Automatic annotation (TrEMBL):
Keywords attached to this entry: DNA-binding, Transcription, Transcription regulation
Family annotation (SUPFAM superfamilies): Periplasmic binding protein-like II, Winged helix' DNA-binding domain
Protein name: LysR family transcriptional regulator
Domain of life: Bacteria
Keyword check for Methyltransferase: no
Keyword DNA-binding on entry: yes
Organism: Herbaspirillum robiniae
Amino acid sequence: MRKFDWDDLQAFLAVVRAGRLTVAARKLGVDHSTLSRRIAGLEQAIGATLFDRRSAGYALTAEGERLVPDAEAMESLAIRIRSRQDDAAQGLAGSVRIGTPEAWGTYFMARELRELVRLHPELEVELVANPRMFSLSKREADIAVSMTRPEQGRLIARRLNDYELGLYAARAYLDEHGPVVGRRDLERHRLVGYIEDLRWSPELDYLGEISSSLTPQIRISNVISQVQAVAAGVGVGVLPCFLARREPGLIRLLPDEIRMTRAYWLLTHADARDLLRVQVVADFIVSRLAALGEDFWMDARGRASG
């Protein structure tokens, strides 16, 4: 019987995450025949079939599903050992990937990168600002920013900041379609909102919070594009105040009636508590947010802007 090999487990996890042999091989920097041999070797060592080979890709068997958490635990241990050695040998160097919602990453984190790399010039930073949830256990990011606090998993969550949302429209749109003086008026206006099946967090159901009868006619997958659509006079939409105030032509509607608050959470994996570079970047984010202050995220002028 073939001996168990850690490289085979790495190959297994790569195929699990990619779903296709060729994609996983490209990420590992090996040819697909080598990767296929590693998977076959692992199955021989364990004595079980781990994947159903299908034309659409590799699907886990029941045995494969059971192996995933153990393989990820071994991967976490290997990463921690290697990272501690790297930290001790190199100081604060290496790569840190930060996964964030698009607005938070674009309008806060991107502008803070200059100070981060000034303080730590050997650090390599990857900022992934996409409208999605990031899996830390699957190594999609070292640090993630989420709109919800996770209820399960080996994650450490810190509340970063609250932010306010309001109802907005462009002056040109209101001139053409009439004012909004009450919630019921919204039923006769064109609304801008999210594509329902692409809402990556339940916290994004803003219109449903105003009224269950409101349905957006214009549906857009990300908030930055929604801001631009509302600013261009496409319709009325619920927008984060820290984005809407950047568009001078936007008017906040019903500010005393419609005021929503959401929060951002900073997530790190429990295995990262010993990784110096991850902890330093996480602490940097927290400190820079504290220095920025609450006014950046809230709309102190909201009650007077209707």
